[in-house]
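Quick log. Single chain, no ligands specified.
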Amino acid sequence: MRNKFDEQLDNLHNMLIQMGAMIEKAITLAIHALVQQDEAMAKQAIDYDNEIDQMEKQIESTCLRLLLQQQPVARDLRVISAALKMITDMERIGDQAADISEIAMLLSGATYIKKLDHIPKMAEATSKMVTESIDAYVNMDLNLAQQVIDYDDVVDDLFNSVKNDLIELIQADKANGGQAIDLIMIAKYFERIGDHATNIAEWVVFSITGRHVGE
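-> predicted structure:
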């Protein structure tokens, strides 16, 4: 019985890794669509969100089967419960990548009011956080989970840099206002992605220790 449970748990881990890779792709498509002003790539990222939603449903079903059929012990319960919480944050990351892509479509024909320096760095940082939070879960790596939680400060600092730069541009010329607000919204979505990755890492800590650090 335990061997069967471990096999199904391995399957759950593989599905989470797959969903994590899908989210990374969604973030990559979104930022490339923005930087390259590629409307077709933005649409691809928006459509890709549906696949992420389907993967969330599959993982949820797997978790519920494990809970109902295998009678897991306390630590197993934490592991499965954490996975259920994690996929909610993962699905929201997919939504936010789609939101970024929708704004990228609106900006695809515009001349940017400034070079996009910090926003691509935010995309890279948040993608790293997503990958490492899921790796921490699969490998039950408490130190890596904590590193992800700490790394959120990097994303927050980048957001503040974007916001301050764009506020200066608005103050210099009010005509910059519309696009500046769009770019601040994109930066805000990336900041939220970082927050969701932090949530995932906090659920990893819970799955290992039984303590939820976000509380």
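The helical segments are 2-36, 39-69, 74-106, 118-138, 142-172, 177-209.
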